[in-house]
Design a protein that fits this description.
About 40% of the residues lie in helices and about 20% in strands. It is built from 10 helices and 11 strands. A 6-stranded mixed beta sheet has the order 5-4-3-6-7-10, sandwiched between helices. A 3-stranded antiparallel beta sheet has the order 1-2-11, covered by helices on one side. The longest helix is centred in the N-terminal third of the chain and has 23 residues, at about 15-35.
Length: about 350
């Protein structure tokens, strides 16, 4: 199988016809100038070492070299090579609660920012792992598909804010369902995996105020699919009011009372137990980060099944070497006839 890895570089080849057209125009112009100067035979006698063929040959060599360099830049690849690779790591989906209650400031600077700080530290320790990001409130959607690009993951993490989801609430069950789908398996019978099933995890970060669905039942399904659910409860059980962004006021209910958002640790523990994982509470220390990292390290000691990768063999080196050789030849070809080499009659000019 043949392909160009950087096929867009072939557009550079469009410059070759431009150079050829320019060369033809310049050659015709020089010929007219010589004809205007005097008799053609007499002018040629005055320039015995001038060559009509050599400049054309040199130009042709340069154009062929340029074409070869364009092809080399497009990275032609041919054939396939297969190799097997084993790695130790995990695939983790982070389900992050971004409902308004996550703006409560019972942890500094607030629940959401504290969760983002924690996740950033976890990503810093990832090496062979893959990570994805699901955000949820009253609805859930995939913010970042599972990837090993931690730079992009942290970039997406920094852009998260409650305004991303207009539907308010805390649909933990829906978030877990969305996270399960990110792995590409919903029934625990993904035939492309064997041991790898034990190396998948959902890291759920929430204050546990679930009002939308049966999150415990979904966590059980995740466990049956070989996905461990780790729950991080963020906030304090005694709760905290939710500030209104940009003001000094707090969110109130319909009766005019200040809404106090409390960490529902019982719900968090139930979800973790149903999902075969652990529950930890995140406060202003790094205790939760260390606990989750320890759990992930345990999972990473299990070897993910051998994966087969298909690579293309690079062929650009041959084109580049031929182009270099042509440029070297062009360097040693003179525009004028060389007396010492004229007897060879390489260009048939006698």
């Amino acid at each position: 199988m043949f392909r160009f890895a950087n096929i867009e570089m072939l557009w550079l080849g469009m410059t070759i016809p431009v150079f050829i057209a320019g060369y033809i125009m310049m050659t015709r112009r020089k010929r007219r100038q010589l004809e205007a100067f005097g008799d053609k035979e007499l002018v040629e006698q005055l320039m015995p070492n001038a060559s009509h063929v050599r400049p054309a040959v040199k130009f042709g060599i340069v154009m062929v070299a340029l074409a070869l360099l364009v092809i080399a830049a497009a990275r032609p690849q041919f054939g396939q090579s297969e190799h097997k690779e084993k790695r130790q790591g995990i695939e983790a989906i982070v389900a992050l609660d971004i409902s308004n209650s996550m703006m409560a400031e019972d942890v500094a600077p607030n629940r959401l920012d504290r969760a983002k700080q924690m996740l950033s530290k976890l990503m810093d320790n990832m090496v062979n792992d893959k990570v994805g990001l699901v955000v949820f409130a009253g609805d859930a959607f995939v913010q970042l598909p599972i990837t090993c690009d931690y730079v992009s993951a942290k970039m997406f993490l920094n852009t998260i804010k409650p305004e991303l989801i207009k539907t308010q609430g805390t649909a933990i069950g829906q978030a877990l369902n969305t996270s399960i789908r990110c792995f590409g398996a919903t029934n625990g019978q993904d035939e492309s995996r064997t041991v790898a099933d034990a190396s998948r995890a959902i890291i759920l970060i929430t204050d546990g105020e679930n009002h939308e669905d049966d999150a415990v039942a979904v966590a059980k399904r995740a466990k049956e699919a070989g996905i461990q659910v780790l729950v991080v409860g963020i906030g304090k059980p005694e709760g905290s009011p939710i500030p209104v962004p940009g003001t000094n006021r707090f969110i109130k209910d319909r009766s005019g009372n200040v809404v106090v958002s409390k960490l529902n640790e019982d719900m968090c523990r139930e979800i973790a137990q149903a999902g075969g994982g652990i529950y930890v509470r995140c406060d202003n220390t790094n205790t939760a980060t260390r606990a989750i990292q320890k759990e992930l390290d345990k999972m990473a000691t299990q070897e993910i099944e051998t994966q087969v990768f298909t690579d293309y063999n690079e062929q650009f080196q041959s084109f580049a070497l031929i182009a270099l050789l042509l440029l070297v030849i062009d360097y040693f070809i003179f525009n004028r006839k060389n007396k010492s080499l004229s007897r060879l009659d390489i260009f048939g000019e006698k």
